[in-house]
């Protein structure tokens, strides 16, 4: 899997009683493998909806999402779950760790769902890379926000997904923690396509492409040189 | 699909921060399983004991019995057939009679109704009959001796060597027999036994035609032959009106009674089990609602709905398995812990020695029932959790992925729950009819309680904002907040109260019904076996004492031979009396037929026309229930067999009989006519105001007519009341257990909803609420929940009682308001305390700690 994302005429309406609200309206988009794309825009512009549809968390009202040739919007529920588990990693603004699992267990879950012991065995190493080796047995409630997001990052990357989607990954963190998480995100996902929703202009500026959304449409596309490190592996902590 | 190991790991992880909630789940199912396992262990032990002691109970391998002497016709042929095979046999005759003390002794009764059992040489072939003084049984044949039930000796103040009169026979008391369980002397009877040797029977002069006498012959046969002989000679025995009982069918009355009692206790136990399952279902429902985010995260990470279902199903199964194992283990040994109580229950009721033993089938059965019930009641929350949208992690559920058909899931969940209730009831009661009725009753009770819960919430919504105190307003508002457990708790607390409340209403109504001494509208003295030539004298003597409710009715022993010329089909009738259906019993039993010119005040015509005077042709009026059971319609011809003589009558009316009026009613009533010539006896009833007057009348009647049986209904009712009271204790214990399960469920619901409440509590505290404010709020909420549950339960119990009691006992229900009020207050207090105790962390934790827990 290379991580190519194709979004075709994507639309999403929500119904509230008799009223229909169009949140996403005919979005067309192609993201090439290993590209780092930031989606920005004011609240309610459709950023998170687009991200959710790309992740297969939601069904579009119209249009389709194709990842590496697979029309994921046409997949059945179970097939979609399996596809997501193998190919897509997700980082949330609110971390979404399972509070009853330790940090190590949280990281291991996606690999265990896939039933891949080799991938699961990477968990301690990934935590160590995140600087959390000594926090492996801690529960989420015993971690700081920055630590929780690093655990979430390790979890998102354990299956070596071709696509990594992040929804405001630094939104709940202070500047220093946010910067560290972002660095780790870029380093960890060097081999993945990275799509990131953010309000943070500084963060967006590090993307190769910035999609500015408004009223459910992509209003503007800014192309720039990638902020992604060329040789991430070498720069990761031992 | 995730592997079992991973699913197990995730399921186990979910228990980490929810031990309290899950402990309540475990406890609620454990209590239910404990109840049914304990009942099953006890009933298994009883059944096994009666079966294993059948030979010594019967004292023989086979017993033939008939209301006619066995020395003639088809019965003689059966006896000859058995005897020609070399079987040892002994005659036995049973009948009710008065035993009179022949010597004066102050402070004791002069006469007592007894059941005489006259036995021939050799009886019993198995076991022995012990006596005080010892070894008196062997002397029974020597002279006109009697061996008495200890209660007879006590009641009449008799000692060895004293003289008694049995009919015209004057006999000497040998002593008392020991009612050793497992021996032929332990058989239960409404009147105590007196043994006499068969050879003195003629001298009593009590074997008059028309008297209710049971003629028997017992046989000792090679092992296994009795059953084969019964099967091979069933039809001949039926045509000769001879009942055949093998040692495996000993103590038929007690076994029938125990079968019904254990079925009833099982049903009460089942209510507790389903209540427990409902508790685990509702607690897990609340628990899983708090785990929806986890499920959504798992879905985001690639888990399918089936994976999520597997994780939480394993969790539910784990709790069900543990709870059921715990409940079954405790339940299997509970009867041992209560052995004293069990044996006190047994001493009066049981003919067999009760040897409690752990029953592996009962234990496995209890555990199985617990797991099935839990799974059935948790399927719905499982479906809901599994169908969670992964979009939930983005804080939006929207229309997201198609849920696994929530309507379909709801339907399937309900069908599975109903099927489980029916299936388990069927397994427990072994009766499809009872299981169906029970399932319908449970569904109806749940439905009504849910409607009441819905009404309560609607009321809370309307009245809540108008309440004056802030704490009360918040407490009431909690009943309507998202994630509330109002319905579950009202149903749980209510169902427990329904069970116990109904039992108490039934018990009180029964006690009132049996309080014959206080009920002036009922006769309290019955004189049975009055021969036609004695009728005038007996009536005159009765009249001299009291004319209150006095009546004298002829009674003729008869069986139904044919309807519209077609013989009653007995081929499909169960061989074992205990297994026989009510309809088959009606088909094959012996009736006391009466005749008279008019209806009694205790009868109401339901169809046809009652004869006036003496119609030309013989007419019959039947009890409506009997007619329905036998499919008899107006105009049909009923052929009766009266001691071998046929009599035909056209059915011209149906009646509803108010049996509790204790009037001389008959299910089959004939018009005066041909029937008057049949051999008969008379039954007289009247009300005699005081016990001494009754006693004197009894003595006088028996002195004049020794064959008469005189029954003091008030005394007989006391015997029944004593049994009712013993059974009530067991049932009340079970009902109380159900009420406790209700409190456990409330505790579970509080624990499961604690996190939601903590969040609110944190906000209230941040906004300035004190711990006392929060405690008042929670206290108001739980007290209100308990109050609503209790009131709903009371309402339903009263409705059930008022509908069921008249149907069961043909009498109005008597609601023990004082007892119910005390019970309701106790339930209210218990549930409020449980709620406040379990929820105390909500008010006690500082806001920061709560935030940390979140």
What keyword list fits this structure?
heterodimer, A: 238 residues, alpha/beta, Rossmann fold, four-stranded antiparallel sheet, 9 helices, 27% strand, globular, B: 854 residues, alpha+beta, six-stranded mixed barrel, six-stranded mixed β-barrel, 27 helices, 16% strand
Shape of chain B: elongated
Mean pLDDT level of chain A: 86
Strand order of the largest sheet of chain B: 2-3-8-5-7-6
User: In what range is the share of β-strand residues of chain B?
Assistant: 15-25%
Largest sheet of chain B: 6 strands, mixed, barrel
Helix content of chain A: 25-40%
Number of domains of chain A: 1
Shape of chain A: globular
CATH architecture of chain A: 3-Layer(aba) Sandwich
Assembly state of the chains shown = heterodimer
Low-confidence stretches of chain B: 398-404
- How do the helices and strands follow one another from N- to C-terminus of chain A? EEEHEEHEHHHHEHEHEEH
The name of the CATH topology of chain A is Rossmann fold
First and last CA, distance of chain A: 27 Å
Give the percentage of residues in beta strands of chain A.
25-35%
Helix content of chain B: 40-55%
Number of helices of chain B: 27
Question: In terms of structural class, how would the helical and strand content of chain B be classed?
Answer: alpha+beta
